[in-house]
Amino acid sequence: MYRLDIAAFILLLMNFINKNKLFPLSRKELLLGFASGVFLALHFYFWIASLKYTSIASSVVLVSTNPFFVVVLSLILMKEKISPKVVIALIASFVGTVIITASDGNLLSEKIDKTSLFGDILAIIGAFSVSFYFIIGSKLRKNMDTNRYVTLVYTFAAIFITILAIFANEDIIHYSSRDFSFIFLLAIVPQLIGHTAFNWALKYLKATAVAITTLGEIIGSTVLAYIFFQQTIDLWQSIGILFIMSAIVISFRYGKV
To answer: What keywords appear on the UniProt entry (predicted)?
Structure first.
């Protein structure tokens, strides 16, 4: 909630200071912007909740299945043609994801308990939600600049998730200054820089291609886990990373609108 609230506040403040015109917006743009914001909020709501019940690796890998949902939704909702080379990228990303998942603590051989299963389901719902976010974003970004789009969507997402948190009876006040410093960093780096970069790319790449690039999160989390938590990267993880990197390169090369 705070991640989105802070990001939205900063954007609104910057637009006010720079006297940028965010309006007028058509009714269709407002409705699609609201829908995109809701799905972004749901993505964070379910994905971050999943971290309480399942491992970081499982959560990140499962939430990164969003390209598969994006492809299906693009075919059904937008009748979008998928380049054969992007299909190859999807296959490569799927193989890489499976390899990393299997190698992460031998997940395939472990007995699945109900708690982990619940967390996995939450992560998958998070992936499904962000897929709609990308699909709607690709539609809006065709005629809307990045600043207007992210300000609109982040603001709607912030309002929606704040209402969710209040109705869920969450304690949203009693955090330490250290907690808030990390929350502030979440708003600045992953949200304002990371997600905004994805939204910028939606004007120039198909939603499918942009969704595939989010698989880089698996690589990033693996590398950072090694740096900060001394979690080593084994051979199979390295192979999986290479598959995913190949998928990202292919999606950028052949996934242009």
So the answer is: Membrane, Transmembrane, Transmembrane helix
- Whole-angstrom CA distances from 129 to 7, 155, 224 are 20, 17, 26
Per the document, the length of the chain is 257
- Judging by beta carbons within 10 Å of its beta carbon (0-12, 13-18, 19+), is residue 225 exposed, middle or buried? middle
Amino acid at 102: A
Tokens encoding 120: 């996995």
Q: Which residues contact 217 (CB under 8 A, 6 or more apart)?
A: 60, 64
Condensed to tens digits (0 to 9), the pLDDT of residues 190-199 reads: 889 988 888 8
Local structure of residue 81 (DSSP, 8 states): P
Tell which residue, 94, 70, 66, 65, has the closest CA to residue 82: 70
Domain segments of the chain as ranges? 2-15+26-254
The DSSP secondary structure of 190-232, one letter per residue, reads IIIIIIHHHHHHTTTB-HHHHHHHTTHHHHHHHHHHHHHH---
CB 66 within 8 A of CB 131: yes
pTM over 0.85: no
